[in-house]
Amino acid sequence: MPVVRAQAWLVAAAAAALLAIAPGARANLPDPVRFGVTVEAGNQQSVQGWLDAGLDPDYLADRIGTGLMIAAWEGNLPMMALFASYGARINAVNRSGETALMHAAWRGQVEAVKWLLERRAKINGDALEWSALHYAVFAGHENVARLLIERGANVNARSTNGSSILMMAAREGRDELAKTLLAAGADPRVTNDRGEDAFVWAMRNGHPNIAKMLGSPERFAAAARSPESFGPQVRSNPVPSRLDDLLREMRRAEAEGRMTQELQLAYLLAVRELRQVAIGAREARQQVPYTVEITARRGQPGQESAVIYYETRTHTEFYPAAPGANPSLPTRRAPTP
């Protein structure tokens, strides 16, 4: 799943930034960090100089992938054209099996997506592979998703663990994208290697409006009576800007030969703090459904509606505090049409 890939990238990028990277065999060519930083900054003159000096147009940076992939990630069409003019492969893959099209889709770079498709970027992968449409839907880029569908993207493509694109929409609460996928022929019955379908993911993550699109009235009514049976929610959270800024500064410092122990330590401390906060939040707070209101009209099957109410319970409410404690119980309401 993309979020797992994002976490893996963060670890790999941190390792690359912390380790001294040997210079290229030729002194005038960049190491992976310097190359990546330069392409991300859009320094076309330096990049062209390296390519003229014999740099492989599919050279891999320390993160994201080839120069073409980085340019697609940034939506930098002139940089993309530069790499293509030196023979960069449109469908090259990075160490995670990702292409430039997937990176452009993840970032919502619609013009970069169009540019790649015009040059025969591979829109559909083999069986059980992540696709650009998976990435666009997961990230919520409706314009990119619709463009990919119009150009022939398989709306029933399945990831490495069998998860469908519709499951991405259900997990992240992408109502409009779920409607678009269903209208394009997405099959809500597709299950992953755990036997879960998009309906299960929608209910688990608090998106009953999507679940109602996907399941029969009978299945939805049964689910609304026991939403807790679908397991705990899974949330996708972006890397905090402070951590992202530190990583960017570390990579620039590495590329310019001015890496310091202080900068490394600041990054490591920020990573440790993030992990501790994530663990604490996971242990301390959970969204717990506490009641369901179901309405129905006699003689009108299929017209049921339900409202699920959730509590944000703290750790002390699962494991009671000392007598006299009165913890707050904020609530949120997830209405079902």
Word description of this protein:
- The structure is a single chain.
- This protein is mainly alpha-helical and 337 residues long.
- The protein has a single domain, classed as Serine Threonine Protein Phosphatase 5, Tetratricopeptide repeat (Alpha Horseshoe), CATH 1.25.40.
- Helices cover 50% and strands 8% of the residues.
- It is built from 17 helices and 3 strands.
- It has helices spanning 2-18, 32-40, 44-52, 67-74, 77-85, 100-107, 110-118, 132-139, 142-150, 165-172, 175-183, 198-204, 208-214, 217-225, 241-255, 261-284, 315-318; strands at 285-295, 305-314, 331-335.
- The protein has a 3-stranded antiparallel β-sheet.
- α1 crosses α15 and α10 (165-172) runs antiparallel to α11.
With helices defined by DSSP (H or I, 4 residues minimum), what is the helix count? 17
Distance between the termini: 29 Å
Output the CATH topology.
Serine Threonine Protein Phosphatase 5, Tetratricopeptide repeat
Strand order within the widest beta sheet: 1-2-3
* Average pLDDT taken over every residue: 80
Q: Which CATH architecture would you pick?
A: Alpha Horseshoe
Radius of gyration: 24 Å
Query: Which CATH class applies here?
Result: Mainly Alpha
- The count of β-strands is 3
Helix content: 40-55%
Strand content: 5-15%
Backbone shape: flat
